[in-house]
Amino acid sequence: MTKMTEATYFILAALLEAPLHGYGIIKRAGEQSAGRVKLAVGTLYGALDRLAEAGLVVVDREEVVDGRPRRYYRITDDGVTAVREEAVRLQQAARVVTGQIAVMGA
Amino acid sequence: MTKMTEATYFILAALLEAPLHGYGIIKRAGEQSAGRVKLAVGTLYGALDRLAEAGLVVVDREEVVDGRPRRYYRITDDGVTAVREEAVRLQQAARVVTGQIAVMGA
DNA sequence: GACCATATATCGGGAGCCGATATATGGGCT
DNA sequence: AGCCCATATATCGGCTCCCGATATATGGTC
């Protein structure tokens, strides 16, 4: 089953376009879901640690902006594969109830 | 957000067609997901208690077959609404990654 | 000065999944 | 006869993980 939690899924999804730092991930996840997903900070950092340990994300670079540190995370190839597989699982799960066939491209 | 767990979702989905007893729900969920979802018994009964308390399912009837008790659960109108809303959420979540638009009927 | 957005980090509580265990019956295999 | 398996319900403890609260720090707005 290789289950993935919802928070983990949206974190990976947020990193698909470009590397982001923690706070940026929270904002991006909110944007992508039209405000429905609000990642709590306590959720984020724990999840990022787990993702890094699993090799699905890596620290891209660290910066200091206005005295505040910023740690950018980048999704790995394994991370991309994992989040795409999870997207397929979500769609299949939805189909069980909707009974509708989704049009899927690449 | 009104989050619903994966186990809860598949339990409600399994009950959409007809009332089922606990063990039947486990088998039905496996069928509907092509064997991907395997509900653990410890998960099932706890989840059913929570669903009953929330009014999303009710006990339909109790039977005794071959000396073994069977308790049938039935999904309520609120349960149907909840599982449909969750299906939409899952589809929207999947779309964040796939970027594809799904064809939806009713 | 107070508050808010930005930014990272930790801790504790609570929810919930899951394997193990217990109990019970009937069928199939050896 | 003995054993395992499928069926069927129920409970318990461990573990994962989400999340709010808290702490710390800076710069802009009011």
UniProtKB/TrEMBL annotation, chains A, B:
It holds the Pfam family PadR. Gene3D superfamilies: Winged helix-like DNA-binding domain superfamily/Winged helix DNA-binding domain. Coiled coil: none annotated. Residues 11-84 form the Transcription regulator PadR N-terminal domain. This is PadR family transcriptional regulator.
